[in-house]
Design a protein that fits this description.
The chain is mainly alpha-helical. It has helices at residues 11-15, 18-27, 31-46. The protein has a domain at 11-46. The chain is built from three helices and no strands. The termini are far apart.
Protein backbone atom coordinates (compact mmCIF):
# COMPACT_ATOMS: atom_id res chain seq x y z
CA UNK A 1 0.00 0.00 0.00
CA UNK A 2 1.56 3.30 -1.05
CA UNK A 3 1.25 6.42 1.00
CA UNK A 4 -0.04 9.43 -0.85
CA UNK A 5 0.53 12.96 0.34
CA UNK A 6 -2.88 14.29 1.21
CA UNK A 7 -3.60 17.86 2.08
CA UNK A 8 -6.64 19.49 3.54
CA UNK A 9 -8.84 21.34 1.12
CA UNK A 10 -8.96 25.09 1.43
CA UNK A 11 -12.13 26.85 2.45
CA UNK A 12 -12.58 28.14 -1.09
CA UNK A 13 -12.16 24.65 -2.54
CA UNK A 14 -14.78 23.34 -0.14
CA UNK A 15 -17.17 26.19 -0.93
CA UNK A 16 -16.76 25.53 -4.65
CA UNK A 17 -17.56 21.83 -4.32
CA UNK A 18 -20.86 21.07 -6.09
CA UNK A 19 -22.17 18.91 -3.24
CA UNK A 20 -21.34 21.58 -0.66
CA UNK A 21 -23.06 24.16 -2.83
CA UNK A 22 -26.20 22.02 -3.02
CA UNK A 23 -26.25 21.59 0.75
CA UNK A 24 -25.74 25.31 1.32
CA UNK A 25 -28.53 26.12 -1.12
CA UNK A 26 -30.85 23.66 0.64
CA UNK A 27 -30.01 25.22 4.00
CA UNK A 28 -30.22 28.81 2.79
CA UNK A 29 -26.55 29.48 3.52
CA UNK A 30 -24.27 31.46 1.25
CA UNK A 31 -20.52 31.22 0.83
CA UNK A 32 -20.29 34.69 2.36
CA UNK A 33 -22.18 33.42 5.44
CA UNK A 34 -19.61 30.66 5.88
CA UNK A 35 -16.70 33.05 5.35
CA UNK A 36 -18.14 35.41 7.98
CA UNK A 37 -18.39 32.62 10.55
CA UNK A 38 -14.83 31.53 9.82
CA UNK A 39 -13.62 35.10 10.30
CA UNK A 40 -15.50 35.35 13.61
CA UNK A 41 -13.94 32.14 14.87
CA UNK A 42 -10.52 33.31 13.71
CA UNK A 43 -10.95 36.58 15.60
CA UNK A 44 -12.04 34.74 18.75
CA UNK A 45 -9.05 32.42 18.58
CA UNK A 46 -6.70 35.35 18.06
CA UNK A 47 -8.32 36.97 21.10
CA UNK A 48 -7.52 34.01 23.31
CA UNK A 49 -10.89 32.38 22.77
CA UNK A 50 -12.87 35.27 24.22
CA UNK A 51 -16.02 36.39 22.47
CA UNK A 52 -14.76 39.45 20.60
CA UNK A 53 -18.17 40.33 19.13
CA UNK A 54 -20.18 40.41 22.34
CA UNK A 55 -22.83 37.97 21.09
CA UNK A 56 -23.26 34.24 20.93
CA UNK A 57 -24.43 33.91 17.34
CA UNK A 58 -23.09 34.89 13.95
CA UNK A 59 -25.03 38.14 14.12
CA UNK A 60 -22.83 39.33 17.00
Amino acid sequence: MSQEHRREVTLEEALNDPIVQLLMKRDGVTADDVRAVVEQVKARLENGGNNAEGGDGPEG
